[in-house]
Every structure is written in C-alpha cells, then in structure tokens.
Amino acid sequence: MANSKYEYVKSFEVEDKLMPSTWIVLRIDGRHFHQFSDKHEFKKPNDERALELMNACAEAMFEEFPDLVFSYGVSDEYSFVFKKTTEFYNRRSSKIVSITVSFFTSFYVMKWKDFFPDKDLKSIPSFDARTVCYPSTKIVRDYLAWRQKNFDLHLLGKGVFIPMDYKLATAFSFVGHINNQYNTCFWKLIESGKTKSEAQDRLKGTQTQDKNEILFQLGVNYSDLPAIFRKGSCVFKDKVEEIVKYNENGQPVKRSRNKVITDHCDIIGDKFWKDHASILEDE
Ligand code: DGT
Ligand code: MG
Ligand code: MG
Ligand code: MG
Ligand code: MG
C-alpha cells in the first residue's frame, strides 16, 4: 500500500550498492568445515569427491548467473568474479551475497548423494560469503594468485604448528604450492604411523627438496599427485569452436560458443591469462 503510515520504516534500510565499474569478487567459504570434514570422514588433506562436489556447485553457479566470468576454488572455499559491468541485482551486495550463497548451499546439499552415495549427510552444511570490489584487472589477478598461493594453509588445521620455512616462503613468495606439499607430507607421515607431533618434528626446518625426499620414501611422487590437489580448481567460461553442421561440400560449419570449463591451472603466472585473454577483458 503506497504512502501508508508504515511506509517510513523503509528509510531505515541501508544502501549497500557496490562501486560501479569494478570487478565484484564473491568468496564463499564453508562454515566449520573442520568439523564437517571430520564428521564425514573426508580424506586428509584432500578429498577428491568433496572437491568435485564443490566444483559441481561452481559449475551450477555459472549456469545460473550469466555475469560470472571466472572462479577459483580450494578446500572449502570458492571465489567468483563477476564482470566489471554487471548490473546483477543492481550491484546490491546483500542481494548478491544472499542469493548466490543460498543457491550454492542448496546445490551442495542436493548433489551430496551423487558424490557420496555411501555417506549420509549427517549435519547441515552452511557457507559464509562476502563481496569485494577490485578496480583493476591486475588486482583481480593478484587476488586470485593470493588464493592459489595460500591454498591449504587452512588444511593445516587450527593450532597446528606452521614451520618457519612455510612462513618465510609465503612472506617472500618463494614457492607456490609449499603449503599443500607440507600437508601432503604431514598426513602421509601420520598414515605411516607417526603421531602429529612426531610428524611436525620430522618436517621442522625441511626444505622443498627434503619434503619431496620424505614423500618419495613414503612412496609418493608429489608431482604425480592429481592437479586438483596441487593447483585447486578453476571454473570459467571460455569461447570454444564447435561444429554445428556440415555444408553441402562436406566442410564443417563452426560456431564459437561460450562453454563452462573446469580445469586445474596455474593462475599465478601469465600463461593462463595470455591464453584466455577474454576472461578479464575490460569491456
Ligand atoms: P570457518 O571457515 O571459520 O567457519 O572454519 P573452518 O573450519 O571451515 O576453517 P577453514 O575454512 O579455515 O578451513 C577449512 C577446513 O575444511 C579445514 O579445517 C579442513 C577442512 N577441509 C576442507 N577440504 C578438505 C578436504 O578435502 N579434506 C579434509 N580432510 N578436510 C578438508
Ligand atoms: Mg571462513
Ligand atoms: Mg571454512
Ligand atoms: Mg576455508
Ligand atoms: Mg522477493
């Protein structure tokens, strides 16, 4: 009812429109997934099915929200980039956050059995989400590089000792996947019968090469681990050429189409971005 005496309550609502002409990055993160992953006995440090379920949710997001251009996921988190010019929900942060995170969560629950046919969902998964605006392509790329570089820091678990070489490495950006390598090593040592503190002692002060050696002794070649574990996952839309029909001379007629792709790429270096220049193109 227009102009009723109750109408004034609307003036209490706060404006949360995000800055125009900036990339909107949405990060979704599982709430209390430390407990959730224990309860559902996820493999340590990386559970392939859990990661694939997250990827399926990200793919569904691309089908549902056409202004998404790129996303990157590791562990219980996924970052989504909306195109700079998006007018999705008038760029209202609370709308964007609430709609996307509820969609993601519902899809996670709906698809749980497809990925874990042998496991019941024993507790209710929930996710938090936030939006951040980045004004330039360079900063978006730095954001994504930051997520890829830091990945698996959380897999160390709360209160687990973080070795000096790890801290130095992230501070000075020496080595890309050092956290994941540490974790893989840590959990392999546990698997081989060591206690947590024995495993930490064994890893104390070790460099990349030493950890590779430990892994090798335990029968693991780090570089042979699936890329999904080493790199995380990228879901994005890319132009692909598809044959739509053949003409009367038998020649293929091609059309380029946007297709949702999932891959496990290095997004820190330039190569991926050179090969996929259209993703973060300014319009
Ligand atoms: P939060 O986000 O503050 O509510 O708390 P958490 O517990 O979700 O902590 P977070 O997001 O920093 O770290 C992710 C947790 O999820 C981490 O404790 C380990 C767990 N997790 C994620 N992916 C995997 C996996 O593939 N395997 C196992 N075993 N655990 C995983
Ligand atoms: Mg969190
Ligand atoms: Mg979490
Ligand atoms: Mg997390
Ligand atoms: Mg409504």
UniProtKB/TrEMBL annotation:
Q: Which residues bind GTP?
A: 29-34, 75-76
Q: List each coiled-coil range.
A: none
**What is the uppermost EC class here?**
transferase
Pfam families associated with the record = Thg1, Thg1C
Q: Which InterPro entries match?
A: Thg1_C_dom, tRNAHis_GuaTrfase_cat, tRNAHis_GuaTrfase_Thg1, tRNAHis_GuaTrfase_Thg1_sf
**Role noted for this protein:** Adds a GMP to the 5'-end of tRNA(His) after transcription and RNase P cleavage.
Cofactor(s) it depends on: Mg(2+)
According to the record, cofactor stoichiometry and binding are noted as:
Binds 2 magnesium ions per subunit.
Organism in which the protein naturally occurs: Papaver somniferum (Opium poppy)
**Which keywords describe this protein according to UniProt?**
GTP-binding, Magnesium, Metal-binding, Nucleotide-binding, Nucleotidyltransferase, Transferase, tRNA processing
Catalysed reaction equations from the record:
a 5'-end ribonucleotide-tRNA(His) + GTP + ATP + H2O = a 5'-end phospho-guanosine-ribonucleotide-tRNA(His) + AMP + 2 diphosphate + H(+)
User: Which intervals hold domain Thg1 C-terminal?
Assistant: 177-269
**Domain tRNAHis guanylyltransferase catalytic stretches:** 6-135
Q: What is its EC number?
A: 2.7.7.79
Signal sequence span per UniProt? none
Residues that bind Mg(2+) 1:
29-30, 76
Q: What is this protein called?
A: tRNA(His) guanylyltransferase
